[in-house]
What we know:
Layout: H1 9-16, H2 20-27, H3 37-49, H4 56-63, E1 68-73, H5 79-94, E2 98-103, H6 109-119, E3 123-126, H7 130-133, E4 142-145, E5 153-157, H8 159-172, E6 178-182, H9 188-199, E7 209-211, H10 216-227, E8 235-238, H11 241-253, E9 263-268, E10 281-284, H12 287-303, E11 311-314, E12 317-319
Parallel strand pairs: 1-2, 1-3, 3-4, 4-5, 5-11, 6-7, 6-8, 8-9, 9-10
Antiparallel strand pairs: 10-12
Amino acid sequence: MEKKKRVTLVDLAACCGLSKTAVGAILSHDPKYKVSPETKDMVLALARKMDYKPNLAAKALVSRKHYTVGMLFYSVKDRCYSEIMAAAQQKLAEKGYASLFAFWEDSDFMSAFNMLADHGVDGIITNAPEELAQTLPADMPVVLYGFSSQTRDAVLVDRRAAIRKVLDYLYDNGHRDFGYLCNPAPEPRYQAFLDFLHSKHLRVHREWMKPTVNDINAREAAMKEILACRSCPTAIIVQNDVTAMAAMAIAVNAGVKVPEQISFVGFDNILESRYAVPALTTLDIRIEETAAHLADLLMKRIKNPKTPVMSCRIEPELVLRKSCISLKMPDAASNQ
């Protein structure tokens, strides 16, 4: 079978009726090259139709760039981070960049980074906290996810506002007894949870608050400890969707009716959360939007290294499904 001939920039330029230089500038989104929106759309449409793929090796020789971004995350096992990485990889591919992945769960942080650096990357997207990110070379473009920094660009999730949002919803629907499966303090959500209880003059049930390491087995054990208490909360907020779905399953297996006896709220809104039984109420961190911001900030940093530090903040949205119930009694007048 004859191999399909690769479409070159010369081929594409000929079909567009433009110069090779003009088409190259349009495809690379060069801000210095002024072109009408109609011409730009025409070039991009023809590039897709002809399945044009840039020759990154040749491009790298000319520009001394690798056109590759490193994704440096703690673990591939966290479903939320996997979705963020996949979405960011797609956004970067649309901008002509390949992605390399490294994880430091089973090694140390710098070893994982050095693996990426040895293969050649133009920048890094990472969920490393600032103290780790500060160990990266100062001239390496870096965008942090989930952690603020004075010296690095970042995409932040307003976790405090998210917890307040879900607690306001539950409180307004009659809940007063809350449990929490979470990361230990001083994680922002943990403190926001305590602040809310104090603001409403509610009792803090320490036996229902289970700060644990970021490990599904530890959190399953914590859920069983809550169920073993003399009384249980009417609602439990969980650090992430995967753990929330596991906690619901443990409760159901123990004979608890969900949500009639215990309501559950997750965090992330991963794809599987809508298929849980019952479907999981959760906080949506808007993964596609988050990934787009990560890619955009890194591209800006690569193109303009001297730009002042940039950041953006994502405010999660409450997604109501079937794992929560209102404890408010129906208005007697409405039943007459």
